[in-house]
Amino acid sequence: MRYIPVYALVQASLVAIASTSPAPTAFVGNVSPPDPFITPSPVEHNPSPIVGRNILSDVESDVGNVLSGLGSGLPSWVASGVPNFFQGFPTGDAVVSSLGLDSSKLKALPTNVLNIDPYANWTSSGWNVRFHGNVYKQPNTSVSKLNDLADIFLVNTSISDLPKSQQTQARNLTAEIFVVQQPKVAVNKIHLKPAASQGSSGQPGGGGSSNTTGGTQDITLPYNTTVEGDFDTFVLIESNGLTAGNETSAIQRLDTHVEGASIGNSTAYLVPPTGLTIISDIDDILRVTKIYQPEQGLLNSFARPFTAWEKMPEIYRNWSTSLPDTHFHYLTTTPEQVTRNYMEFIYTNYPGGSFDTRPLNFSDVSATLSIRMFLLQKIFETFPKRKFVLVADTSNSDVMRDYPKLATDFPNQVQCIFLRNTSATDPGDKLPYDTSGFKGIKQSKYMFFLNSADLTNLDIANGQCYNQSIPQNLTFGYQGLPLGLGATPTSVNGSANHTGAASGLVTKDSAGAQGLMALVAAILTATFMLL
Hints:
The chain is α/β, with parallel strands linked by helices. Helices cover 26% and strands 20% of the residues. The protein is globular and about 65 Å long. Pfam families: APP1_cat.
């Protein structure tokens, strides 16, 4: 029996579609969309000071396959921007079993805390900080065992074939995955004090921060951890010299440390009610990941050093100093276990800011595709008077659905939407993306771009978010179709540096019966190849 990776089957199926589907009809004369019809937001903008713990029950997980409209049976993770290797990480008893730990060894291990950088909002009762993270123990795993475990995640290679530096990173990340979460335990006291540094990456004042002069105190969380070892709750803190949120437009920062934890530091960002917040995805917009190429995406995540994409650090550095009272919030749907690598990369290259990742109880693809909107709605509702700039790329189906929906549900809060068109800049991205959600949204509010330089010469503070040197040519349907679909492709984007790529355009109904039959035949053929 031969082993064939799932993405090989996917590519074979897409090739079959491309070879048999009729070319879609070319679009003639792009017409500017009408002004959007704005409906009142159905969301209540009064968050409770204390948020309940059962996160998963609050989220609708009814997420269909992004390609179902094309008649495709491709796995949902392929089109989701969530790599398959970021699903199904072992937790709890599974880790104990795989590492052969007994109860005495486990009890003797020190407790660690993943203390994710929180944001805080101002309420009539004071500053309200959202503490969230995970309590766990880190087993003492041998190098040889880590090598064996790392090989589980590597596709078409082995850790022994990697350069020494990449072997080290692969082992470190594997060790972060194979931890033992601590369920139903109290989180120790959290010590707060003014942050010594107000910027990041050598930026004094970066991220709209100011010198924090108060806030020293100890706080206790009101809940124990979940069965997965997670904690996520808002807690009111004493002012103790902090500036009231309704008396400043600048962000104050507090160092936070969980008592008794060998690892447990973070920075809390106290964000005033008004101002600008930039919510940014990370993979394939701030760093080179190539999630849409599973083998490369895995190596870029598990072994290779994290690398910034183009000049995005310079773009964010400029935003942090030129835009008034800017708060940065980094939101990634990668699981908590690999959060620390992401946080270290961000704070080495980008302005400091609060952070959100995927909690452990969002473990399957359906829940993963729901977590982004859940976290986005949480921050929008927490800061109903702030403006938001949303930054991501087109390889995430949840982004392509959620960002335009937010612009409709929160019309007075979404200032700009910036999306890197990965299928137009990276030939490895073979997946279509759906722009239908942008129909009816003013062009001045969003922009699909190719290069980081496209994000210059914009007036974000005043809502001018479209660089007019970059043609959009959207048709509000599936775009970026791969492998020759569309004999006469239409340019989706130009770029400020005069580069561009053509991508075939198609509506949801254009794939045709021939393409569906070809897909079925390709999948059956690939299945028999396994025998």
